[in-house]
Every structure is written in C-alpha cells, then in structure tokens.
C-alpha cells in the first residue's frame, strides 16, 4: 500500500487549506473538536479530518506534524474516524505557556477516553506512527522521526474491516492556528507480533 494524497477525502472540509504531493497545510476554525460524552457529558463532532480508506490489515502510517498552536486545547495529529461514535485521535494539545498534553483519545460505542503525558509548551513538532494489526492498533510518537515511544495499544470494536485514517486539526475554543503535515508514508507494519506469553487458549495444562 502506498500513500498518495489523491486518495485522501475530506470529512468536514475546512475553509483554508493547501494540499500538495508532499505536504498538507490547514488553518483550524474556532469551536471545532472531537469528543463523546465521558466526564464532560457534551458531544463534539465537527473537527475536519482528511482520510484515506483501506482494507489492509497490517501496516504503519507515519506523519510529521508541525503546529503554531498557542491557545488552550488547540490540537493536531493523526486520526481514524469510522463514524461519530467510533474513532481514535492522537495529538499534542496545547494547554498554557508552560506545558502541553501529548495524548490520545479512543472512542468506542459513543464514549471517549483520554490518555496523556505532559510535555513542554515549547515543542511545536511531533512525529506519529499509527499501526494496525487486524482490529488492534498502536500509536507511537517521536521528536526526531527516528526513535519512537509507545503511547498506547488499543482495540476498535468497529475496526476489523475497512477503515479510514489520516490527519486532523481543530481548535475547541475561540482560536485558530496553522497545522502542517509532511513526511507521510505507509510501510509494512512496524508494530511487530507479540513474542511473549502465549494466548490463554494455547497454554497447555
């Protein structure tokens, strides 16, 4: 499978963006976000996402993100949006002049969770590697595009057949910023099969 920008399709196309063979730039619009129910109780489902479709069960998608965010909750990163109640996003989310959240949200059957770690507010670039193994997924991040660290492993209940994945950016509050995506490629799955404990069904008595 090869990454080709011509395969990308907008869901909620933004007003201002530029797409070339090697780069995607978009300006976020105020009051755009993705979240479902958990804790906050509200449902936000209006962020623009740019995705391609695949039935390939084993692959990794790599992308470099650069962002000029400087307002609370501004975010950009990778996304797998299946429908309004089943999706994943991984991104850096600006908090204040001291720190940001590097995190991911997994939404299954209409409820979101959020896993984060704190990073410095001066960071304005991040690489991601999104990997699929059947209906299980892994998201990793990297500062330099060489050394990746696992952010999380997760399961998608509706992610076992054809999926859509790509990039997104949004500004939940009254702000806007430029997000840039580059160095995009699809490779063989870099998330290797687990070689540790055998599944329970294979354990001999």
Essential attributes:
Jelly Rolls, seven-stranded antiparallel beta sheet, single chain, mainly beta
Secondary structure topology:
Elements: E1 9-11, E2 17-19, E3 23-27, E4 34-36, E5 43-45, E6 49-54, E7 58-67, E8 75-83, E9 86-94, E10 99-108, E11 111-120, E12 125-133, E13 136-142, E14 149-155, E15 163-170, E16 178-187
Antiparallel strand pairs: 1-6, 2-3, 3-16, 4-5, 6-15, 7-12, 7-16, 8-9, 8-15, 9-10, 10-11, 12-13, 13-14
The main sheet orders its strands as: 1-6-15-8-9-10-11
How many domains make up the 3D coordinates?
1
**How is the quaternary structure best described?**
single chain
Shape: globular
CATH fold-level name: Jelly Rolls
Q: Helical stretch count?
A: 0
What structural class do helix, strand and pairing data support? mainly beta
* Strand coverage percent: over 45%
What is the succession of H and E elements? Answer: EEEEEEEEEEEEEEEE
- Determine the mean pLDDT: 94
CATH architecture: Sandwich
Radius of gyration: 17 Å
**Biggest pleated-sheet summary:** 7 strands, antiparallel
CATH hierarchy, class: Mainly Beta
Termini separation: 42 Å
Helix percentage range? under 10%
Give start-end ranges of low-pLDDT stretches. Answer: none
Give the beta-strand count.
16
């Amino acid at each position: 499978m090869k990454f080709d920008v011509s395969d990308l399709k907008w869901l909620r196309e933004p007003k201002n963006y530029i797409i070339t063979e090697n780069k995607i730039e978009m300006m976020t619009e105020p009051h755009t976000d993705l979240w479902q129910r958990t804790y906050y109780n509200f449902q936000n489902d209006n962020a623009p996402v740019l995705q391609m479709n695949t039935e390939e069960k084993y692959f990794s998608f790599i992308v470099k993100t650069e962002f000029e965010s400087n307002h609370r909750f501004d975010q950009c990163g990778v996304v797998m949006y299946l429908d309004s109640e089943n999706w994943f996003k991984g991104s850096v989310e600006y908090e204040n002049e001291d720190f940001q959240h590097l995190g991911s949200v997994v939404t299954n059957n209409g409820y979101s969770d959020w896993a984060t770690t704190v990073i410095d507010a001066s960071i304005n670039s991040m690489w991601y590697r999104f990997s699929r193994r059947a209906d299980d997924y892994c998201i990793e991040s990297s500062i330099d595009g060489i050394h990746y660290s696992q952010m999380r492993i997760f399961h998608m209940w509706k992610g076992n057949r054809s999926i859509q994945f790509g990039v997104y950016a949004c500004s939940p509050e009254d702000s806007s910023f430029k997000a840039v995506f580059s160095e995009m490629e699809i490779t063989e799955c870099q998330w290797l099969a687990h070689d540790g404990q055998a599944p329970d069904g294979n354990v001999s008595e």
